Structure formats: C-alpha cells, structure tokens
Amino acid sequence: MKGKKLIYFIGVLVVGLMIYIVADTMFQPGVGDLETDFEEIGFYRNENNTGPVIRIYTVFSPDTLWQEMRQYGDFMPHTKYGKTTVYFFSDKAGTPSDPIPEEPNFDRAFRQFCIGKYEKTAMGEVRFTQFPFQ
C-alpha cells in the first residue's frame, strides 16, 4: 500500500511540474507586450547554417520610444556567433521591404526615415543608435 501512495505522490509531483513549466513558457514577455505597435516590414537571413547567422529586420515604428525599440531588439532571435540588426523607420512607406546583406542593408533613399538601429554582435554585445545616418 505504501508503494502505491509513493507512486501516486510522484505522479502528482510530475504532473504539477509539467503544468508549471508549460504555464511559465506560455506567459513569457514578448513583442506583443510592448506599448508601441511595431510592424516588421522586411527580413533577411543568410543561408549559412554552419557559420555565423546574419539576421536583418526593417521595422516601422510609429513612435520614438527608444527604450521600447531596444526591448524590441532584445526580443529578436540571435544565434551564438551570429549578428542581428534591427532598423527602425518613422514612415511606413519609407520602410524597405527587402533588406540586403551588404551594409547599410538597404537603399540610400530610405536613410532619411531611419530613426534607430539595434545591433547584437557575434559575442552578444548590444548597441543601440538613435538616428544612425544623421
């Protein structure tokens, strides 16, 4: 009888732990929790899966809340030894939809609308620049 109670107790603990893990995973903060309604317009990812992964995002930002832009960048995926770059633009029509791998990652005509640049380097160092092309 004691053996059955122990098995039931362990079973209840395992189920409780699984419920806790799933609940904790489901309620992680993310881009949707930010006050600003950012809209991802363009995305580039290189084909390299064995070396550094390069991700470039172009995002429309209706407001210049610098801290929220930095948080948005922090929420973007990053790969060890890779590089993630997020450009923020103030004009939806002035946001490039097809970033390219070569710097500055989009046509010069869009520079005037770029209000912020977030970079996470290969070693995880974060840089955020306001008005990077002025």
Describe the structure.
- This protein is of the alpha+beta class and 134 residues long.
- It has one domain (31-130).
- Helix content is 26%, strand content 25%.
- It is built from two helices and five strands; from the N terminus they run H-E-E-H-E-E-E.
- The protein has a five-stranded mixed β-sheet with strand order 1-2-3-4-5, covered by helices on one side.
- Helix 2 (66-75) links the parallel strand 2 (54-60) and strand 3.
- The model has no long low-confidence stretch (mean pLDDT 87).
Q: What attributes characterize this protein structure?
A:
134 residues, 5-stranded mixed beta sheet, 2 helices, 25% strand, elongated
SS elements, strand count = 5
Q: For the CA atoms, what is the radius of gyration? A: 21 Å
Beta-strand fraction estimate: 15-25%
Compute the separation of the termini in Å.
77 Å
Question: Helix proportion of residues, in percent?
Answer: 25-40%
Query: How many helix segments?
Result: 2
- Note the main sheet: 5 strands, mixed
Briefly note the structural class of the backbone. Answer: alpha+beta
**SSE string:** HEEHEEE
Whole-number count of domains? 1
In spatial order, strands of the major sheet run: 1-2-3-4-5
The pLDDT mean sits at: 87
Low-pLDDT runs of 5+ residues are none
- Overall 3D form: elongated
